[in-house]
Each structure stands twice: as C-alpha cells, then as structure tokens.
Amino acid sequence: GLSQYSSDPRTEWDLSAYSTREQVLEAVRNLRYKGGNTFTGLALTHVLEQNLKPDAGARLEAEKLVILLTDGKSQDDANLAAQTLKNLGIEIFAVGVKNADEAELRQVASEPLELTVYNVLDFPLLGSLVGKLTRVLCTRIKERSHKETAGSAVKDTPANTGPQLSPTDLKISAVTSKSMHLAWSPPLRPPKKYRVVYYPSKGGTPKEVVLEGAESSLQLSNLTSHTEYLVSVIPVYDTAVGDGLRGVTSTLPLSSPRSLRVSELSHNSLRLSWKAAQGATHYLVLCSAAPEGAED
C-alpha cells in the first residue's frame, strides 16, 4: 500500500489494490508527486487509521511494516504518532533524503536503528538502498513471523474499537465566524492523551492540539470565517489507539453592514449611512457611475 502526504495525507492505493509485482510497479510509474508541507505525524496517523485496517487489506495475522520516506523535518509531532504505531507492534523504517532531520528519523524509527534508519543526500542515491533494505525487510518479516511468543504480533494488541477505547458522540456547538466548541463522551477506559486535528476541508494546513486524557472538550479559536472544517478527536493509550471521532462544520460568515441609506444628495455629493457590522474595524466604500441606461 502507498500513501503520499503534505499537509493532507492521501492514499494512493491500499494493501488489497494489487496482487502482482508488475501491477505495483506500473502504479509506481504512474504516481504523481504531491508537493507541499511536511506533516509526518498526521501522515503516520493516517496510515494507522486508514491503511492498516482490515477493510483496506490489512490481515490480522500479517506482520505490519511501515516505510517512511521524507525529505524534510516534520512540522508536527511525528514522535508521538510513531510511538503509537510502535506500541501496537508496527515496525517503522525511516528513510531520509536531502533535508531530512537525522535526529527525527532516529526518533521515529523502530529499534535496532542500524537496520531501520537510512539517509541519503539526494533522490538518485535512493537506488543504492534498495538491495540492503529489501534484505532487511524480508529478514525481519521471517524473524517475526516465526516467533510464537506473546507480543510478537498484533494478536496480543488490545483491540482499537468499541466503547472501551473509543470516545463517542462528538458535539460541535457555539460556532462563530472564528471559533467553535467541541465536546465528546469519553471511552470507558480514559486515554492517556487526545490528539485533536482540524483543518479546512478544501485544503489548508492541519493544526493539532494535544489534550490530557481527563479532558473531554476543547474550544477552537482563530479559525477562518465562512470555512468548512474537518475535525478529528483521536484517543491515544500507552499500547493502543482508539478509533477517532470525526465531524464537519462550517464557521459563520463575517457579519455584514445592513440597511444602506442614501441622503443629502447634491450635484456632486451624497451621504451614506448603514447599520454597523459587528466586529468590523474599518469599512471600504466603493463608488462608480451607474452604467448607461440604468437607474440613477
């Protein structure tokens, strides 16, 4: 499976999409590069929530490996998201190119780092990693598949669905042109943290707030007016992650001046008056001659 990310992660194809090597290589050849920001934490959460689910082709009995390819330093908390994956038995390999942050790669990757962290100066040099990375990946899968001890596979990982680990009933209220209030019912087992991610549905930089697990509400402020926002509330545990709550709502448009009146007309002047727009600090008044034939 493959996902690309910038400020908004995008699944290119799921684990179940192709069944032959040739099909995968053809899909890679047709892949279009997605430019933009570097929100690695959001991308890793996307992989966990979207790409490693059974309905996306993830098999419970299979080993779970994630290869992160990045050319920059993350603009959000990649370490917290990576730790969540690793706590669930998912192994992360980090491959950096050009401006990737070596320290961040080492934070995100699984142990042992000498097998899971790679860094090259430019994209053409990635070819030099293919042989070694292929051998390491195949060896790791074989090693872990032969282990029958508890904790070596996803079997012993707590389920990440149901009322035990997942909050319910997301309510969005008190919506204004620049703020909204979120509230939800906590799961039966309170999480260690909540990650609240919100961003405009038509594209924009995601923002993230991390709350303590005892909290169950949040006021979002400094939003853009008249904009639809996607909101996710994700519970994070020491060894599991619950299903996230999602909601969509639009901020209100900015208030407009009303009741425009014209008075004190003369041959070269007129007076305008209106009811004030709440929160306005200035007004821009535009005036032009009416087109020929229109009412004066």
TrEMBL record:
InterPro entries: ECM_Assembly_Org (IPR050525), FN3_dom (IPR003961), FN3_sf (IPR036116), Ig-like_fold (IPR013783), VWF_A (IPR002035), vWFA_dom_sf (IPR036465). Residues 1-133 form the VWFA domain. It holds the Pfam family VWA. Residues 158-167 have a biased composition (Polar residues). The keyword Secreted applies. Keywords: Extracellular matrix, Secreted. Its main location: secreted. Residues 147-168 are annotated as: Disordered. Residues 166-255 form the Fibronectin type-III domain. SMART domains: FN3, VWA. It is found in: Secreted, Extracellular space, Extracellular matrix. The keyword Methyltransferase does not apply. This is COKA1 protein. The gene is Col20a1.
